[in-house]
Amino acid sequence: TLEARGVSKVYQTGALEVTALGGVDLSLFEGELVVFLGPSGSGKSTLLNILGGLDRPSAGAVYFRGDELTQFDDHALTLYRRDHVGFVFQFYNLVASLTARENVDLVTEIAINPMSSDDALGVVGLSHRMDHFPAELSGGEQQRVAIARAIAKQPDILMCDEPTGALDIKTGITVLQAIEQTNRELGTTTAIITHNATVANMADRVILLADGHIIEVIENSSR
Amino acid sequence: TLEARGVSKVYQTGALEVTALGGVDLSLFEGELVVFLGPSGSGKSTLLNILGGLDRPSAGAVYFRGDELTQFDDHALTLYRRDHVGFVFQFYNLVASLTARENVDLVTEIAINPMSSDDALGVVGLSHRMDHFPAELSGGEQQRVAIARAIAKQPDILMCDEPTGALDIKTGITVLQAIEQTNRELGTTTAIITHNATVANMADRVILLADGHIIEVIENSSR
Ligand SMILES: Nc1ncnc2c1ncn2[C@@H]1O[C@H](COP(=O)(O)OP(=O)(O)OP(=O)(O)O)[C@@H](O)[C@H]1O
Ligand SMILES: Nc1ncnc2c1ncn2[C@@H]1O[C@H](COP(=O)(O)OP(=O)(O)OP(=O)(O)O)[C@@H](O)[C@H]1O
Ligand SMILES: [Mg+2]
Ligand SMILES: [Mg+2]
Question: Which of A43, A75, B4, B69 meets the CB 3.0–4.6 Å disulfide criterion with B26?
Fold first, then answer.
């Protein structure tokens, strides 16, 4: 289980103070698929980054299988990310000087139980573009490389920030099916931020965020 | 009018050849709002970049009000872009070291008939974040700065590549209304690439692309 207890995040820029998260309590259970919805600027990316160990909260605590991440030093947090978490970032964060295949290899080389980069790129429909660089790929193709990179790691926890934002409906469904398959077959605890309503149907729970707070949780019994 | 005649684009990377566009014929009429739909990798961004003077075709010609853009030298093409075209790029292209307001000022300072940057940022709901840098804004907020920058210029032609990809439905509608208003009130010739079905309803015409070709054109009589 991944738990947030009273997590808040306040950014201080000069005299201005922006509260991105205002005291969030949340548990993600092993093998669960949870979708996060909410308006632009409501704190979705901030919450996922903190749960995934990419950012530290201003107050509150985060626990992974009983260990308190918020007490970890930088090195321990890096090991938590490396050994347990896969990310699909909102802006892909691909390495421009590496090909699609090399971007995926970057992660599989240090993963405990990876898929091959060829298989991962095949799953997202990019077998024919593995030796192209990010600048030679369209927006949606770059996003699919980012997804292949996260899936290839076969992590315990998969954090996806708008995984289908740059994709047409058909390509989006291919990608979502790949994420859902990893969750179902491997038991990957999966958190997806999206504005895409079809994704909400796939989830065990849908969590609504607004102005840095959880305002509603919807259980999806049909899954 | 903006016209493409037999426009094709072929990328050569090593031994591999990728045909992004395979002979496209198209006219965008003055004041028209046209939506481009199509799967990931079908050539939408490539077509908009060529029509907007950001890229040159491998073959074929592009005309703006009778002048042949494809005969322009680099300096003349820059003047065409500066004096006539506003862009909302798929990946925003904000300048990281400038605030939201300064990113918009960059364009209004050299525009012929601009809005103020404060007004443009107000239209997209970011009056309260004008002095923040891109890294201090969420994904959707950054996208809205990119839209404000294009609208503020009040250009003859507005090219929008996935303008609502990072936005929730409600915020997306605010932004689309701003684009539609500029088109209606100023007569801005507007081309929008999107996977968002509501946008297609706003358009005079919807153009479907697949594998670098136009496969269908739908006229929307209700507009
Ligand atoms: N520099 C390049 N070198 C090689 N191929 C390229 C290059 N730029 C684009 N392409 C290819 O051209 C095709 C069209 O790309 P384009 O960016 O126009 O697609 P798109 O329709 O905008 O897709 P998306 O919806 O994913 O953004 C894609 O298959 C892409 O990989
Ligand atoms: N470094 C920072 N400095 C100041 N404010 C910040 C910083 N990073 C994020 N914020 C603010 O915190 C709030 C939450 O941001 P977050 O990125 O979590 O939103 P989001 O829900 O992911 O939005 P979107 O759907 O637009 O991606 C936003 O108002 C954002 O502007
Ligand atoms: Mg975000
Ligand atoms: Mg594109």
Answer: B4
What is the band of B11 on the pLDDT scale with cuts at 50, 70, 90? very high
Q: What confidence score (pLDDT) does residue A218 get?
A: 93
Q: How far is the CA of A134 from the centre of ligand 1 (A)?
A: 10
Q: Exposed/middle/buried for A170, CB within 10 Å: 0-12, 13-18, 19+?
A: exposed
Please count the helices (runs of H) and the strands (runs of E) in chain B: 7, 10
Dig out the tokens for A103 from the structure: 């971007």
- Please give the span between the terminal C-alpha atoms of chain B, in angstroms, as a whole number: 20
Measured between CA atoms, how close is B171 to chain A, in angstroms? 7
The answer to whether the CB of A134 is under 6 A from ligand 2 is no
**Residue A56 scores a pLDDT above 80:** yes
Alpha helices in B157-209 (DSSP H): 169-186, 197-202
A28 sits in which H/E element? strand A16-28
Q: Phi, psi (5° rounding) for residue A25?
A: -115, 130
Query: B194 in ligand 1 pocket by Cβ < 6 Å?
Result: no
The dihedral over CA atoms of A71, A72, A74, A76, expressed in degrees to the nearest 10, equals 180
For residue A188, pLDDT beyond 90:
yes
Inter-chain touch B40–A132, beta carbons under 8 Å: no
Please identify, by atom number, the ligand 1 atom nearest to the C-alpha of residue B38. Answer: 21
From the DSSP assignment, how many helices (H) and strands (E) are in chain A? 7, 10
Strand, coil or helix: A193:
strand
Q: How many CB atoms lie within 10 A of CB A186?
A: 15
Mean pLDDT, residues A43-69 taken together: 97
pLDDT, tens only, B87-123: 998 888 899 999 999 999 999 998 989 999 999 999 9
Q: Which ligand is nearest to the CA of A54?
A: 2
Q: B54: Cβ–Cβ under 8 A, 6 or more apart, which residues?
A: B81, B87
Contacts of A34 (CB under 8 A, 6+ apart): A28, A190, A191, A192, A203, A204, A205, A206, A207
Element (DSSP H or E) covering residue B61 = strand B59-64
